[in-house]
Amino acid sequence: MNSVPDIFRVLPEVILTLTGVAVMLIDGSLPSGFPRRPLGWVAAVGTTLALWASLWQFSLPQGTGFYGTVETSAFTIFFHVLICGIVLVALLLSLDTLPEGSHHQGEFYALVAFGAVGMCLLSGAVELLLVFIALEISSISTYILAGYRKDTARGPEAAIKYFLLGSFATGFLLYGVALIFGATGTTQIYEIARLAPSADNHSFVLAGLGLMLVGILFKVSAAPFHIWTPDVYEGAPSPVVALLSTAPKAAAFALLLRVVYEMFPSLHGLWSPLLWIVAVLSMTVGNLAALRQENVKRMLAYSSIAHAGYLLAAFAGLGTSGIAAASFYTAAYAAMNVGVFAVITLVSGYDEELPLVGDFRGLIYRSPLLGSLLIFFLVSLVGIPFTGGFFGKFYAFSAAVGGGAVWLAIIGLLNSGLAAAYYLRLALAAAQRRAAKEGDAEVPTPQVGVAVGAALLLAVAATLVLGIAPGEVLRAAEAGAHTLQSPPALTAPTVVGVAMQQKP
Amino acid sequence: MNESILTLILLAPLAGAVLVALAPDRGKLSNWIALLTSLVSFGLTLHLPAHFILGQNGFQFEINYPWIENPAIFYHVGVDGLSLWLVVLTGLLAPVGVLASWNAITERRKIFFALFLVQQTAMFGVFVSLDLMLYYGFWELSLVPMAILIAMYGRKNGPRAAIRFFLFTFIPSAPLLVAILWLYARTGSSDFATLQILIAHGSFPAGPLCWAAFAFLFAFAVKVPIFPLHGWLADTFSEAPVALAMVVAGKLGLYSMLRFHVALFPVQARQAAPYLIAVAVVGVLYGACLALVQRDFWRLLAFAALSHLSLITLGIYGFTQTGSSGAVYQILSHGIIDGALFVLLGILYDRYASSQIASYGGLASSLPHTATLFVITALAMIGLPMLSGFVGEFLILSSTFTGVSRGWAIAASLGVILGAAYMLWLVQRLFYGPESTLATSKRAVDLQFRESALLWPLATLMLVMGVAPMLWLPSIETGVHPLQWKESPAYPHFALSPAAPNSSHGEGQR
Predict the structure, then answer these.
(1) Alpha-carbon distance B388 to B381, whole Å?
(2) Cys bridge to A266: A197, A351, A434, B313, which one at CB 3.0-4.6 A?
(3) Which H or E run contains B448?
(4) Within an 8 Å CB–CB cutoff, is residue B170 touching chain A?
(5) Does residue B137 sit within a domain?
(6) Which of B71, B148, B166 has the CB atom closest to A420's CB atom?
(7) Residue among B111, B167, B174 whose CB faces A421 most closely
(8) Separation CA B352–CA A292 (nearest Å)
(9) pLDDT tens digits for range B387-430
(10) pLDDT digit string (tens) for A91-115?
(11) pTM of the prediction?
(12) Distance of residue B153 Cα from the nearest chain A Cα, in angstroms
């Protein structure tokens, strides 16, 4: 078992890093004025390879590498595939929508690839310092990407806001790590799980958990740590928001699952009610605020806060069912949210001349394809059966009901009724005939290119598959949940690549 | 064939929708594909009564196939006497809807017909699903095409009506889903038959079960709708395209009440019955009174529907064999009559672009065939003997009179009389009297071939259903019979009271 070289444990990350470096090097060596668009294809191919490498990791025995810091298991593979998939779609989307020439396209693609490295690493890390490093890698890339529209006032504002608040959050996380290290003398997650219940300074452990939760909940934009979300989403370019609202969140949720279920299962009585409150708060605050938004991206920003709340409802579930439901929801949410932002990018344009709900009026008459797709993704976000959104909510709330949190499920489902109001406002605006009386200039019909077409196809296919035949994905999520639920009986940081054994 | 027929019925409209979506948006190609698909699916539904075995209890044409492992959701479909004719009715109204939209829908035909066919699948799904989760899936799915099409083709303010419709039906389905999840969490099954047995054997704590039953009832009551939950109805009727308005109210909710409230939670349903009866009678009278004063014929139709649907609810919660049979029969009859009325009023709206009753008058001279058909339909709706409306109304009212309470029966009959008043007055104001300026200014043609071809069969059906109810009633009774385990000829005057003894219920069931 020890024969697995460490490098294989981080193969997707290695491929992504090489891709990013290659893109930067090629970008630097190309003469100025030369089209940078092919670099996007390079990045897309690299991401596809990374995705394939993640799948290939299934053939590895489950275990850790690099002195017990990185893990490969069904759980990490699930999130690796998910993150690489999102990044791939986001890259395809950017390929056709980034304006040629004026922007530093090469850097853009490289940053996306580096961000993906951080997110993948975050979902695989089982050592808190590596967790911190991974979080920083992913965050710094996304800070820069958020401010990519430098020529607008909102772009830099978004980046600075995201950076300042994000740094605070990582600070909290790091402080939590330090306290936990102080209490247990280790930063290895399995070790902490073993030592924490009997730690002398139990109050340090509690404080550490609290601080870490603050940091992570900020990253998933759960209320009351959600303040940054609408401004950042509004200021960042839409293809970036497609990425920003899904991939880092998926990675952060992977971390949250690891922290609460793997590191501190003993403190279930503490974090469970906390997350209950945060879940209810997020859904309610997100939905109520979204109801009043006129700007589509701000509306979806608040909706993403609400979705973080639905997802946190799954944490009320018991062990495996809760983890599986949360993982599944992450995937379903990613599929539909990337899709909806893809459509919005195409309709609003990179410079967002048409950012308001009213601007989407009559979309289905202008472009039947985009109109139908927008409605489809919104319907999925509402949570109508036979779409991914339904099973996401379904599993999350049935996990909650199974865990005894019936009220959480009721609040959540009533909230999704509330959410239907604003999703429908947009969907039905798109379906409505446009009043011709305004006499405004002819709105250009958005064109769907090959890359964007592929991105949309992937998103639609994922949303439909998750809605009609969720079995396979759910099985993968459950396999991941099992690996998280049964940490190895004995691992020391010095033992390299210990094969993990599943509890019977 | 018998095993796969329900799957075929479910898939046929869906396949048509995909075909419409893929075909080019040229001329009336989408219309033809939709018409062909709907005729095929109607033909398929006719297979069911042809091969239905009378007197056999339980479900027929059953398929039970695992769909999702965890949670264990089964693709479990089947029909019994309760749903048999509703499936056929849904099949029949599909070509009617397509023909009614033939010229009315001029823009984005592709989207209209594709969504119309998806809606068709969803409705079939609701009637045949025997797994609660599957049922819930189709139930929710039926909202989406409806809401989008109301928004797209609304007459004045489509999106507002669409949001209203959607939220009114979507929010109550949240507690419904929680209730289903709760049942599933306790038993590991969402199968209708399994749950029915488990509930009857008292495997659930009484308190929460009562809430679960209430969640089911509430979702259905909004969908029917019954008084006072009818807030969405008038707007939806005045905005929705004819083809969708004729299916939006009534049968889905009423069928669900019978199958998933009365049959699934018999004890709780009986406890709720006295209140529901009172609400239903109020609804009958309230709807009729409001229908009398409406100036817009869509809204008049909405309140008339409220009145009639409340009457059917009365039949269901009277808990008598005849009452329930009458209720199912009345659902069928109301579906056909309402469909015909919508088509007829849609014809007027197409020709004159007004839904204000006052702007019409004296149309009978220029549109004689339309007038004839309208009168027939109106008479059927009023419940004239020999026409379809009579049978159901008679069964419901007489069973209420003998089996429930004379007072309520008399009050409900009053509503029926009011029904005659508003319908006849509507006929008079639209078709007779002096010709209005609208009628003289716009010379409209009478029924076209397409319109006659769809209205005359419906009118004939009203007549046949009025004259020969025995073609339908035996199979309906097969379906209704298992619901009525308390009643037997020995207790003709079954007293409804919330405190009905529980022990005897269990006995009767077994």
Answers:
(1) 8
(2) A197
(3) none
(4) yes
(5) no
(6) B166
(7) B167
(8) 39
(9) 998 999 999 999 999 888 889 999 999 988 999 999 999 999 98
(10) 999 988 887 765 678 889 999 999 9
(11) 0.87
(12) 8
Query: Does residue A318 carry a pLDDT above 90?
Result: no
Measured distance CA(A127)–CA(B326) in Å, rounded: 70
Query: What's the rounded Cα separation, in Å, for the pair B61 and B46?
Result: 13
Residue A419: name the closest of B175, B178, B170, B154 by CA.
B170
pLDDT score for A287: 93
Q: Which two tokens stand for residue A237?
A: 């370019």
| Span A375-384, pLDDT tens digits | 999 999 998 8
Can you tell me the distance from the alpha carbon of B239 to that of B150, in angstroms, rounded to the nearest whole number? Answer: 6
- The number of C-beta contacts closer than 8 angstroms across A and B is 105
- The average pLDDT across B94-110 equals 87
Chain A nearest C-alpha distance from B499 (Å): 29
Rg (CA), chain B: 22
Measured CA to CA, the distance from residue A3 to residue B363 in angstroms comes to 91
Per-residue confidence (pLDDT) for residue B18, from 0 to 100? 92
User: What CA–CA distance (Å, rounded) separates A329 from A474?
Assistant: 10
CB-CB contact of B302 with B233 (8 Å) = yes
Residues 6+ away with beta carbon under 8 Å from A225? A169, A214, A217, A218
B137 vs A386, A409, A414: nearest CB: A386
In this structure, what token pair is assigned to residue B198?
């488990």
Please indicate if any CB of chain A lies within 8 Å of the CB of B167.
yes
Q: Where are the alpha helices (DSSP H) in A125-201?
A: 128-146, 154-184, 189-195
| Cross-chain residue pair B178–A428, CB shorter than 8 Å | no
* Residue A51: strand, helix, or coil: helix
Half-sphere exposure of B101 (CA within 13 A, CB side): 33
Q: Taking a C-beta distance cutoff of 8 angstroms, is the pair B381, B374 a contact? A: no
Range list of H helices, B293-405? 297-317, 321-352, 368-382, 388-403
Total domains present in chain B: 1
Q: Which residues of B touch A469 (CB under 8 A)?
A: 68
Model confidence at A250: pLDDT above 90: yes
Give the tokens for residue B446: 């009478």
Query: Residue B444 belongs to what domain range?
Result: 265-510
Give one DSSP letter per residue of B174-198, joined into a string: HHHHHHHHHHHHHHS--BHHHHHHH
A386:B182 CB<8 A: no
Overall average pLDDT of the A468-480 stretch = 89
Any bridge partners for residue A70, and if so which? A65, A125
Distance CA A211, CA A245 (A): 23
- Closest Cα in chain A to B66: A471
Angle at A90 (CA atoms; ends A86, A92), nearest 5 degrees: 120
Quickly count: other Cβ atoms within 10 Å of residue B231's Cβ.
13
CA distance B70 to A469: 11
Q: What is the percentage of chain B residues whose pLDDT exceeds 90? A: 41
Test B151 with A431 for CB contact under 8 angstroms: yes
Q: Is B50 exposed, middle or buried, given 0-12, 13-18 or 19+ CB atoms closer than 10 A?
A: exposed
d(CA A15, CA A446): 34
B79: exposed, middle or buried (Cβ count in 10 Å: 0-12, 13-18, 19+): buried
CA within 13 Å, CB half, A109 = 35
Is the separation of the CB atoms in B352 and B431 below 8 Å? no
Task: Give the CA dihedral B150, B153, B155, B160, nearest 10 degrees.
Answer: 40
For the cut 90, the answer to whether the pLDDT of residue A339 exceeds it is yes
Non-local (6+) Cβ contacts of B429 within 8 A are B357, B358, B360, B361
Q: What is the CA radius of gyration of chain A?
A: 22
- A226-238: pLDDT as tens digits: 989 999 999 999 9
ipTM entry: 0.82
- Residue B503 CB neighbour total at 10 angstroms: 7
